[in-house]
Every structure is written in C-alpha cells, then in structure tokens.
Amino acid sequence: MIEAELKARVRAPEAVARALDERAEGRSETYQDTYYDLPDGSLRARDEELRLRFVVDRGTGDRRTLLTFKAAVVDEASGSKPEYETRVGDSQIAHAILEHLGYVPAIVFEKRCRSHAFEAYGRQLLATLVRVPELDGTFLEVETLVQEESELTAALDDIRSVLADLGITPEDLTRELYTDAVAAARSA
Fold first, then answer.
1. For residue range 100-119, what is the model confidence (pLDDT) as tens digits?
2. Contact, 121 vs 53, CB < 8 A?
3. How far apart are alpha carbons 134 and 111 in whole angstroms?
4. Contact partners, residue 144, CB within 8 Å, separation at least 6
C-alpha cells in the first residue's frame, strides 16, 4: 500500500477543526513516536523510516502500539511513501526486538492529534490536526491508501480538493518532516 498524503501548516486551526467536526466525529490521541535507524544512519540515507508508535486515546484511555516501516518516497512533490504498518501487542518487547536487531532510537517525540475518518470524492480519508509541543503551529495531514503507484496522482488530487474545501491553500503545504523539525528545535 502507498500512503497518499499531503501535510499543511494551518493558519486557522479552530476553523479547520470545526469544519472537520462537521464531516466526522474526531478522535483525540497522543502519539509517542520513536524513530529507529541503524547506527550508521543507513535507513535515513535510503529515505526509509522505521517507527514504533505508542498511542493513547485521550477520550477512552485505550492504548495501542503500531510498528511502521515506510519505504523511500515515490512522489517527490507530496513525499508519499509505501507504508507497512501492524499492531503490536507489547511496545517494550517490540523495542527490545528492534534493539536486538541492531536498530537504535534516532529520535523520540510526542504528537497531539485529533483525527477524523470520512469519505470524500469517493475515497476513505483520514484528516489529522497535529500539534507537536516542541514546534510552533498546527499541522493538518490528509491521507488515503492506494494499491498502486499509478493511482497516486488521482488520490493526491482528491486530497488537494479536500484541503481546499477546508480553506487550506497550496501555499500552506509543507514537506517538512517532524523528525527534522524536532531535531532542529532541539539543537537550536
């Protein structure tokens, strides 16, 4: 599967939040993301990502852990990547497995998210308002999954239409990675 995704900086987060609430009920969650790499940085050098995400639903208190591998970018303009994700039963054991395989935590940070799943333009979409405590501003990620790279352009066009419906302009789009932004904030 390829995650077709666009991310934008949001100038009017309250207005976007209201518009998303009109489309679908939101789910508020906190993510604790740990990105792993080999000691030589070879995953990053290949534009690949290995992440262990611990999720807490702030409404219900439910917890889950997700292990995700993202391959290299297949669309430079959007940064969309093939993605492989699975639920993990025990985050501590998953961490131990990764470390025993030679992976080390490269960066760890928190994201506070409000996600809305809905259908638009014939697609199942997930729109997530994101705040990273270490970064200024609010971000909006809108994504859908496609089977083939040939479907990516049409999916991204539909995502752009949803963003426009929410008042997000092409100038608001960003390819900035949270991992890079957090690392830069910490070194400043």
1. 999 999 999 999 999 999 99
2. no
3. 9
4. 3, 4, 5, 123, 124, 125, 126, 155, 158, 159
